[in-house]
Structure formats: C-alpha cells, structure tokens
Amino acid sequence: MKPEKHKARKSSRRLPLPEALLRPMRIFVSGNDTGIGKTRVCSYICSLFAQTEKLLYLKPIETGIDSPEDEKIVRHANPDCSTQTLRLFSHALAPTEAAKREGQTISFGNLTKDATERIGDYTCSVIEGAGGLATPVDENGHDWLDFANSLKVDFLVLVIEDRLGAINQGRLLLSHLNSTSIQSGIWLNETKPQSAEIRQSNLSGLSSGPIPIWAVQEYEKKEPRFTCFPWT
Predict the structure, then answer these.
(1) 8-38 pLDDT per residue, tens
(2) Looking at the domain assignment, is residue 150 inside a domain?
(3) Phi, psi angle pair for 127, to nearest 5°
C-alpha cells in the first residue's frame, strides 16, 4: 500500500445514512491520547452528513476550558450541525481529577443517561471522548469504551497520532478492544510533520493488524487523503 496513491473518496461527501441501519447512527471518536486531533476528525465526519441528516456533535466531557471550545470548532466548520457539551471542567486534567478540583464527582450512569437523551431523535450523532479510550470517566474506573458500549454506538473511530511510536500506541489501543463488538477502525492523523519513511512504516505496520485503517490524514490538510469508511 503506497500512501501517494490513496485519495479521499469523493463519494463519501454528504451521504445519507446506510439503509442497513435500523436506528439513528452513532459514531464515537476516541484514540490513543489527548491532543491528537480528535475534534478535527469529528468535524470532518460531521461534514459528510451535515446537509443530509439531522446531525448532532456531542462532547460528553471537556476539561481545561471555562466555556465549550470543541463544539465551537465543529459548529464553525458545519453551521447546520447541532452541538452540545454535557460536562465542563476548568482544570486541564483527566475528567475524574478535573471534577475533584471543583468538588464534584462524575456519575457514569447520569452521564450516559444525559447523552442518550441529548442524542434523542437525531438521525446521526458524532460523539467525542476526552483524552484516550482508556481514560477513566468516573471513580469506579468506567472509561470511554464502557461509555461507547453503553450508548450502543455503531462505529468506533480510533484516532492514532501518525508519528514514531504509532505502531506501539496502536497495538496498545487495540488490545483494549476485547470487551466490545463495536465495528472499529483506525484514523492515522499526522499532527506534526513526519518523514515519508515514518508515515509509510506506520501505515504498513498498522495495516497488518486486526482493525482496518479507515482514514489517513496528513499534516495541516483539511481532508484525509485516503478513506475507507464502513458507512459509505
């Protein structure tokens, strides 16, 4: 698989939902770390459905900010997309620790209940977790994979930063998927310039794994140069 030959599929733009889905579609976006471009990925996914579906971008928890920021980014790029943030904490820490600093605790049950209610009758929902997939959401150790399972999402997009070490990060991330049957795929995202050798090595190494690569996005590019989404 040679990177330069892969192009983003034009047919994936502005798509109606697949007829095979018997209920509104839910896409959960997580990854191997924080600061790896998950919001940018969500924004692009929203652009695929914003003009054909009743669409919601949902951020269950955002930390390190006094007012919702990620939803503003998505809404700016997709004016027809509804956006909402459920929990907001000002300390730039993991959700449970950020909540502690403000004298609060996060109830996993209430969070999933609120998310389910917000999703409501939207025909497509794109949901973004805070931090990595295994980041604890409450004091009992529930993480974002538990959250995705509870919401019965249809697809799990796993963003992995395309850099030296991505193969190891990807393998560690994929080893956490044993407790789910959600259809999952990798989005390789280059957040800082990398050599062609590193990018090709990551693509080759992760392509040989059990989870397919759904997208490859280069540094500062608005759209991925390669997509293979299961909802197209």
Answers:
(1) 443 334 445 555 455 689 999 999 999 999 9
(2) no
(3) -120, 130
pTM given for the model: 0.91
Distance of CA 22 to the CA centre of its chain: 22
Which residues share a beta bridge with 156? 28, 184
Side chain identity at 105, as an amino acid letter? Answer: T
- The H or E element spanning position 63 is strand 55-63
Structure tokens at 112: 């999933």
Scored b (16 or more CB within 10 A) or e, 102-112 reads: eeeebebeebb
Residue 37 Ramachandran class (φ > 0 left, ψ -120 to 50 alpha, else beta): left
- What CATH number is associated with residue 101? 3.40.50.300
Q: Tell me whether residue 160 is in a domain.
A: no
Question: How many whole angstroms separate alpha carbon 55 and alpha carbon 14?
Answer: 12
